[in-house]
């Protein structure tokens, strides 16, 4: 565990994703500090699933997440605002197709 | 997906009219469907004494763990230790309730927790020792969880259905408690020179109290196996320490139990008729 030989306060930030009991996907629920990946998982268990919320946890170092910035908002997202035809709402969907 | 509140998005698509989904659903009563009648072949006095002893171990340990609140080295650890304490408190409540049903007094759980003095407690002395260093708490928790887990695994086959149900619930909790403590034990033992020194000191402090646990239950070899395995990973062999004379199971306690109980019981004794 030589990579964890850091002093208190140096613990990196992790983002926590929990899949709810009946949820289909993991949802971001918050963040925490931990010295290593394993500790991040147990901390996430203790902090974010103690009220019976989850059945699966993902943790990832915050620094490993690449996020879009506010400056990119217009070029990233506005171009799709007027293209309603991209929604598959012009089709008749059979009743027995789930999750649509 | 709404990002107004993280828990709202967790709840999305899980309507079912369950507005409290975000706070968890599917809670189970560990005693659901379990008959509280005492089987005829069960020795009532023996069963009551066992429930009391296991309840006292859990209550006293829970109180020590609660003392870490606002004092733990990290916020995340504080919650982790408090969670473990609350699991044990839940076990204590069920065990006291069972004790009251079995020992013929009909007492409720509060009577056992709040209105007995130190001499009447039957917890092992390991539980009542002051928290000291975080490493000592980890060493104690590793020993306590391993020992209790081995004990509870046997009790899932108890002739008393209530005790068996309490044990089955406890086994899952204790498995996590042991895992939590073992990970910290290895992390500190295999960490820096300073963390190794403090983990070593914590283990040395715990060692004299091991004999009392084995005397109280035939789980010694299993606990020793856990300690050896964790000790190898942590570079911390178990020290040889002669067991202390006396036993908490017979009411022998250190000077630390009475002050712990005084704090634990103060509100209930100041307001004996209060409900909460």
Feature tags:
heterodimer, A: 100 residues, alpha+beta, Ubiquitin-like (UB roll), 3-stranded antiparallel sheet, 2 helices, 3 strands, B: 276 residues, mainly alpha, Ferritin, 61% helix, globular, PaaB (chain A), PaaB_sf (chain A), Phenylacetate-CoA oxygenase subunit PaaB (chain A)
Describe this structure in words.
The complex is a heterodimer of chains A (100) and B (276). Chain A is of the alpha+beta class and 100 residues long. Chain A has helices at residues 37-48, 73-77, and strands at 13-20, 26-33, 54-61. By secondary structure, chain B is mainly α. Chain B has one domain (44-270): Ferritin (Up-down Bundle), CATH 1.20.1260.10. Chain B contains 11 helices and no strands. In chain B, α7 runs antiparallel to α8 (193-206) and α7 (161-189) runs parallel beside α10 (220-234). Chain B is globular and about 55 Å long. The model of chain B has no long low-confidence stretch (mean pLDDT 89). The chains are: A alpha+beta (100), B mainly alpha (276). The A-B interface holds A 1, 4-5, 8, 11, 18, 20-24, 27-30, 32-35, 38-39, 42-43, 45-47, 50-53 and B 1, 6-7, 9-11, 13-14, 21-27, 73-76, 79-80, 83, 176, 179-180, 183, 186-187, 190-192.
Briefly say what this structure is.
Chain A has 100 residues and is of the alpha+beta class. Chain A has helices at 37-48, 73-77, and strands at 13-20, 26-33, 54-61. Chain A is flat.
Largest sheet of chain A: 3 strands, antiparallel
The unreliable regions of chain B are none
Report the average pLDDT across residues of chain A. Answer: 83
Radius of gyration of chain B: 20 Å
- The main sheet of chain A orders its strands as 2-1-3
Q: CATH fold name of one domain in chain A, please?
A: Ubiquitin-like (UB roll)
Overall spatial form of chain B: globular
Q: Report the end-to-end length of chain A measured between terminal Cα atoms.
A: 46 Å
Largest interface in this structure: A-B, 30 and 31 residues
């Amino acid at each position: 565990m030589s990579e964890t030989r850091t002093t208190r306060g140096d613990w990196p930030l992790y983002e926590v994703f929990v899949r709810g009991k009946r949820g289909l996907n993991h949802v971001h629920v918050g963040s925490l500090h931990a010295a290593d990946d394993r500790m991040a998982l147990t901390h996430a268990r203790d902090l974010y699933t103690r009220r019976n919320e989850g059945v699966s946890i993902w943790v990832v170092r915050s620094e490993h997440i690449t996020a879009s910035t506010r400056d990119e908002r217009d070029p990233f997202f506005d171009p799709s605002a007027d293209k309603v035809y991209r929604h598959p709402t012009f089709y008749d969907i059979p009743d027995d197709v789930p999750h649509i | 997906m709404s990002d107004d509140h993280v828990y709202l998005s967790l709840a999305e698509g899980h309507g079912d009219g369950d507005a409290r989904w975000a706070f968890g659903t599917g809670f189970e009563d560990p005693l659901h469907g379990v008959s509280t009648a005492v089987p005829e072949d069960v020795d009532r006095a023996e069963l009551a004494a066992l429930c009391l002893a296991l309840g006292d171990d859990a209550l006293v340990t829970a109180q020590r763990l609660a003392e870490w609140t606002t004092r733990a080295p990290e916020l995340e650890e504080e919650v982790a230790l408090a969670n473990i304490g609350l699991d044990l408190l839940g076990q204590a409540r069920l065990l006291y309730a069972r004790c009251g049903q079995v020992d013929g007094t009909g007492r409720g759980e509060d009577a056992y927790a709040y209105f007995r003095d130190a001499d009447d407690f039957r917890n092992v002395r390991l539980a009542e020792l002051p928290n000291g260093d975080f490493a000592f708490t980890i060493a104690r928790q590793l020993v306590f969880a391993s020992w209790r887990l081995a004990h509870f695994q046997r009790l899932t086959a108890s002739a008393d259905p209530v005790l068996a149900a309490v044990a089955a619930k406890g086994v899952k909790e204790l498995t996590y408690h042991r895992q939590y403590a073992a990970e910290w034990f290895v992390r500190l033992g295999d960490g820096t020179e300073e963390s190794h020194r403090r983990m070593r000191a914590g283990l040395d402090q715990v060692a004299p109290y091991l004999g009392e646990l084995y005397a109280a239950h035939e789980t010694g070899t299993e606990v020793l196996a856990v300690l050896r395995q964790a000790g190898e990973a942590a570079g911390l062999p178990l020290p040889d320490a002669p067991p202390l004379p006396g036993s908490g199971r017979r009411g022998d306690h250190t000077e630390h139990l009475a002050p712990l109980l005084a704090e634990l019981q103060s509100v209930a004794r100041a307001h004996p008729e209060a409900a909460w």
